[in-house]
Amino acid sequence: xxxxxxxxxxxxxxxxxxxxxxxxxxxxxxxxxxxxxxxxxxxxxxxxxxxxxxxxxxxxxxxxxxxxxxxxxxxxxxxxxxxxxxxxxxxxxxxxxxxxxxxxxxxxxxxxxxxxxxxxxxxxxxxxxxxxxxxxxxxxxxxxxxxxxxxxxxxxxxxxxxxxxxxxxxxxxxxxxxxxxxxxxxxxxxxxxxxxxxxxxxxxxxxxxxxxxxxxxxxxxxxxxxxxxxxxxxxxxxxxxxxxxxxxxxxxxxxxxxxxxxxxxxxxxxxxxxxxxxxxxxxxxxxxxxxxxxxxxxxxxxxxxxxxxxxxxxxxxxxxxxxxxxxxxxxxxxxxxxxxxxxxxxxxxxxxxxxxxxxxxxxxxxxxxxxxx
Length: 373
Known about the structure:
Blueprint: H1 3-16, E1 30-35, E2 38-44, H2 53-61, E3 69-72, H3 86-92, E4 97-100, H4 112-119, E5 123-126, H5 130-136, H6 138-146, E6 150-157, E7 162-164, H7 176-188, E8 191-195, H8 196-202, H9 217-225, E9 229-233, H10 244-247, E10 252-255, H11 257-262, H12 265-269, E11 273-276, E12 279-280, E13 283-284, H13 286-295, E14 300-303, H14 307-315, E15 321-326, E16 336-337, E17 352-360, E18 363-370
Parallel strand pairs: 3-4, 4-5, 6-14, 6-15, 8-9, 8-14, 9-10, 10-11
Antiparallel strand pairs: 1-2, 1-3, 7-16, 12-13, 15-18, 17-18
C-alpha cells in the first residue's frame, strides 16, 4: 500500500468517527473515493436505516466515481437489510478498486462483499489500518464474533482508590471536565447498566445531559438523536416506580424470573421493559444477561454502578475495559472501595494493561483492559 492509500484510509476512519454517537446497532463506517489522486466523494454512516457510507460517497462523486478507488473502513455489505448491498452500489457506480480496512465480522457478510467485488472484476485489497478500524467498533465486532457486547466499567475514585464515603456520599468526587467526559461516554454507549444501590443512593437518572456533552452542534444533535437505553439490575424490586430513574423515561429492568413473573405488572404498564434473567448462586447471571443484550443488538454496554455490581462484573471476567477517573483527594480507610472483590493473595490480583492515561481537567483518566491469559 502506498502513502496515498494510507492517507485516504486515515481520512475514511476520521469520517467514520463522526458516527460515534449515532450508528447503533450498526458499525461506524467511513468511505472515501479517489480518482487520479483527487478525492471525488466522501461519506459516513450516520444512523441505522439510513444510507451507508459508500452510498453517501457515491452520491457526492456522481460520474466521477467511475474508475475510482473506494477506501472503506469496513468491508462493503453484500446482503439486503434496511438498505441495499453496498458492494452492488460500488459496482454500479463504476468503482474499479476497493480497499477495505477489515473484513466484516457479520456472518451475513464475512468476506462475501469482497468476493462479489472480485468476481465482478474489481481490484480488492483488505487489511489497511485494520487495528484502527477495529478500535472504532469494539462492541459490534465482539457481538458478531463472541455473542456478547463490549463492556466498559466507569468508576470515579480518589487517589487512595475510594469511590464514596461510608455513608454512600459520592457527589462529586471528580470535577466538571470528568463529568463532561462521562456524558460523552454515555452517549456513545448502546446501553447503560446500573444497580439498585447506585440509583437509590444517588437518585440517579443515568440520562445524557445535552448541556454537559461539550460537543459541537452536529455532534450534540447526533448524540441526542439516539440516547442510550438504560437498564437497572434489581432482583428484589427495591427501586420504586416513583424513582427518578424510572421517571426519566422508558427503561429496562433486569430481575429474577420469579419476580418478573409475579410482581412487575406495574412496571410494564408504566412503559418499562422487564427482562427475566436466570440466577447463578442466588444472583442474577450477568453472563446470561449479556447474551440477552447481544440478541437485542446491543453493541457497547457502560456499567455505572457501585463497588458491589462493578465487582460482580469484574469477578465474572466480563469487563473488557475500565474507565477510571481519579480525583486529587483522599477519602480515608473507612470510605468505600473501588470494587467489592475480596482477594486472598497478591497473585490472585488480575493484571491490567493501561491503554491510555491523560488529564481531564484536574482529574486523571486511566483506561485499562484486563490482560488476556
